[in-house]
Amino acid sequence: MILQGKHILIGISGGIAAYKIPELIRQLRKAGAEVQVTTTKNALEFVTSLTLQTVSGHKVYSDVFAAINEHSTEHISLPDWADMMLIAPATANVLCKMAHGIADDALTTTFAAMRKPVLIAPAMNTNMYESPATKQAIQQLSQWDNITMLDAASGELACGTSGKGRMQEIDVLLAAAQYVLTPKTLDGKRVLITAGPTHEAIDPVRYITNASTGKMGYAIASACLRRGAQVTLVSGPSQISMKAWEAFAPLTIVPVTSAMDMYNATLHSFDQSDISILCAAVADFTPQTQASQKIKKEKGQTTMTLEMTITKDIAASLGEIKRKDQKLVGFALETHDELSNAQRKLQTKNLDMIVLNSLQDKGAGFGTDTNKVTFVYPNGTTKNLPLISKEEVADEIINNILE
Ligand code: C5P
Hints:
alpha/beta; 32% helix; eight-stranded mixed sheet; binds cytidine-5'-monophosphate; Rossmann fold; 14 helices; single chain; five-stranded parallel sheet
């Protein structure tokens, strides 16, 4: 959503990871961005100008003196056009040149004129990455106000060895581009989020759970990271990966299984948090005892009774110890008497806002990419949102907390 309509200028230098950039361009355009490309001469040894032109839909700027250029001043007009620049892969050579203001080709001249946000993804052999010159260049560039420097990733390198020096993967570059383009409205804030279902064990192989996938909570975590928050995500079992964000953003994931684990982990981080958003579908009941061996059915047995006890209500516990400077937001998933149930929960759990989901709405609830919610406030007022993506719901929730 954040990439929609954005102008992204990609600078490619001469490293083998350049072969991944056409796919990155394709994905940026799929997300609604417009992309233009500038390269060093060496980059075109790894990826052709024709490929880049085809996937970007624009002529590639790689020769400062080429007569075929419609304008001879792309190094000025491209930075003017762009909302951000992404230099990937950034080789040792290009990093060292940029740090010292050397502008002797299309990419470095364009960078020299770029005053808007720049995201840099270094990629090279480990020894080159760890050379004093490269380290110094990275350190210097990292201090510039408009630069976000990614770490090189570790793993297999093109030279046949293994170590630090790989370019971050495309999903990391996409998340980092979103991060760079988002105003930092949660800068310095610590946000605690619970997400996903819980598993309440019956015996070593069976458990009770619910249909939550974690999508809504993970979307909130990403939205908070984009806005510059430090995020602790206490998550029940979920298939969703946050690896792209973990590569560069201040995210701590605390994986938990049961409602009790979630209670302990959430309470542990609450004191440090400015905003807590409780999105998890926590089990309300858990088996009173957990059998140490798999429960067997007996011959002739027709029923089985499971004794359950009530779990601790995390939201209510946090509501009791909440300080005035802390915000606490809960969710309510209801099937009937939605509004009155939500209002009662808001009061009893001492929440600052409740996000009401109705399972009666099509496209809302578990597992979908969309949601239709109503915000319920302590003064009794409500705000209905239309059916929108969970990403948009996440942003609306944060906007409402910040109001
Ligand atoms: O009472 P109910 O489960 O409907 O309330 C939903 C809200 O309370 C959600 O924000 C949910 O994450 C939270 N909750 C909790 N601990 C529980 C049960 C619910 O934090 N044991």
